[in-house]
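Onboarding guide, step 5: your first structure request.
Type a short instruction followed by the sequence, for example:

Predict the 3D structure of this protein.
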Amino acid sequence: MPYDISALSIRLGGTPILRGLTFALPEGGITGIIGANGSGKTTLLRALAGLLPPDGGTVRHMGQPIGGSARDRARSIAMLPQSATAPPGLTVRQLVARGRTPWLRPFLPMTPTDHAAVTRALEAVGLTDLAERVVDSLSGGQRQRAWIALVLAQESRTVLLDEPLNFLDVPHQAELVALLRRLGLTRNIVMILHDLTIAARICDRVLALRGGELVASGAPSEVLTPEPLRETFGIAFDCLTLPDGKQTILPSGL
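The system replies with structure tokens like these:
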């Protein structure tokens, strides 16, 4: 399994952020992390990336404790933080090529294998025609796809995404959701989400956090229901099932 977490606790500046989290994620598919602001979602994602050492408990990835060099971790885990920014003047192809950094030999240029990985990543996100455009000239949705392409070019089995749908309008959200669904067929994706309806429709499993503790973990049909959501967010929710079987989740009273 990609992750086996046992009694994970993390403190930042002496303040407890995560408190004894225990869960396991099976191979493949999309895991969503939900919770109110300050619940520990980003801290958990960084711990899964090996960027924050536990103060207690263990984080195992693919059966092994997370450790070693950043280069070694990047070969198996790719993380896209929230609101990533590219250096001025960088083209889409140059940005995506940075995903090959963990695989490059010191002081040697990219190989045909590296260039092929970049080409595949651009094709996967539909940016081949914009490969020579400067990243800053793209729309918000196009920029987000460029960053996703960088992650794909990294060719890591596990992909961690911090609120990848933020700041995108509805059409671009729909494009990215379709892309993430495809990626979930071949990779282990863990991402933070705020839109509970999207979480219900895209995720294979959901982790719900409140105050650094794990409130619920399981399939969307188990976690995205009124009682776990009330415990997670402290308010009531209406969880409606449409005729096609899809869920719509909104705070009660809207």
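Each response can be followed by summary notes, for example: The chain has a mean pLDDT of 92.
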